[in-house]
Model the fold of this input.
Amino acid sequence: MSDWVLLGLIAVLVMLLLLTVFGFAVYSGLFTEVVVSAGSPPVGSITLAYKFRVGPYGESGQLFTDGCSISSKLCSIGVYYDNPHTVSPEKCRFAIGRILSEGDAKPSEEQIKRFQKYGFKIFSFPAPSHVVMATFPFTTPLSIHLAINRVHPALDTYIKERKLCAHPRIEIYKEDRIYFVCPLARQGDFYVPEMKELERKSRAAAAEAEDAQTDITGADTLSEASSISIEATTDSRDTSVATSILLPFPASRGREEADNRSEHSYSESGASGSSFEELDLEVTMDGEGAAGLLPDTGCGGKLEVTDKWTKEPIAAERGEE
Done:
């Protein structure tokens, strides 16, 4: 009989444990509905102390801990620049830190010096005008993992369906909420100096590679043209020699005719030039002018292609704060 009682107590304890875990997960936001929207941001301009890293997003947990150990009262912030689904973990770029002040408020010199002492840098973000955003409860450390696995896929879907350019991914941990913010304009304002420098170097390297490829292509084209010219000259000389041997008198006549044709070639070119001038005049006199020949870009004649979150940063699983 005592064995049955013991088994019953164990079963009750297991059930209570499972109910506790389930309640903890629910309290952490397990069944919270994720609502993604676009509009005005939940925060204004901010000044932050941050550390920049290149590597797996999982390493951000230690940086969050570093910031909290300096000041536990401030809000945490994470800025993720790359999509870990399209960029290898070792090349993902992110900045983690604490918000020193918001709006018109200024951070104290004491705070700035304290963070700088531990290797943090100071930077300011302007207030974004329009953003894609979502929120999630921040009640337990488990909330972070639930948010990562639920909010970011919802943001991906929303941005992809509407074909938006929204980056980088900014996470703000404020009181009992996690705010996910993706600026829709002036994204460069949310790049810390280290990120801007990496982007500059990347563009410079791409430009150098393109110039090198152009030089190689140009050299190949010039080499091919030179080969064709040499072959044509050789064939011409062979033909001239053979003709002079077989027909000595007509050959001299042919050279005279060729000389006569070459004398008239400039005037023929002039006639062709006149024809182009007439064509230009007709186009100019036409009411449409060049507009009828060139497509309207709709951007003042200048097209700009952006490729930025195509790499929208999605925070992969990170360590707890």
User: Anything to note?
Assistant: The longest helix spans residues 193-246. The beta strands are 37-39, 46-54, 75-80, 93-102, 121-125, 131-137, 169-174, 177-183.
